[in-house]
Amino acid sequence: MRADRLVSLVLLLRQRGRLTADTLARELEVSTRTVLRDIEALSAAGVPVYAERGRHGGFALLPGFRTELTGLNHDEALALLTAGTGHAEQVFGLGSALASAMRKVVDALPEGHRATVSDATQRFLVEPETDLLSRRQVTEDVPDATMSEVRRAVLAGHKLRIHYAATGNAPTWRTVDPVGLVTVRDRAYLLATRSGADRTYRLSRMLAVEELPEPAQRQDQVDLDRIWRERCAQFLSDGHLSVLVRVRPARREDLLATAVALRAEEPEPDGWLRLEVTYQDQWHAEWALWQLGTDAEALGPASLRTSLRERAAAVAARYAESS
To answer: Residue 160 and residue 33: Cα distance in Å, rounded?
Structure first.
């Protein structure tokens, strides 16, 4: 919206001083010609913006000019600015809106307070791309057009037609009733119903989407947290293998890195940990636990213990023959 863009332009000039038209265009994600038209509109409205010519020129506001925005206390501003760091700006395709909101937050603070909060946010890092084990997060790219269309349908309460590519199947068109959006570890999901049945769709697998004018069949109030927990539990119980395992604490993260999910955990008297984890199937569980050697012990199911014992015996026999 142009009004929001004009406010953002003023805030950029207030907070960063003189900026060129090209820099403003990049920040606002518009063309340079649009920036120049916006500058003219601000001047006509009485905002004291002026141009400085020359190699280091650009646009600036007269000193002392301040917009009237609601103020925030230190902790409120710090919480909002921290939430806007890292990958948070990509949540549900609201990056531009979040950037604009952050500029307003900074501008709402008193002059001396502004520098303190800005420095404080440098001390917090939210969801970096790599963890302590140098494992990079796997991010899924969702086109802005797809995210915007899905978001509009969810908020408007309209049916949604999606061209969806489920794993192992050819893409098909389907019409769903959107319930809500969930983002987990940089993956976005649409919770929906289809012909009354619960469905969960990854946005990265949507090849095309279309918001329909018909109202969605859904409840007026929704508890997304409860629905997500229930769907996760259902997903893990369908076609997955639950395994009870003992593991040395030092190898806990290695174990969890190969599991689909952690269901329960408790310490044992000898210092080991007892975990209930989920694997895709028995072959997956056998492969994962074999990597841990004697640092882990499968307690159940019995078929998994048997297959691990037989594998260990076969390896021992092979090396005994060659000695």
So the answer is: 36
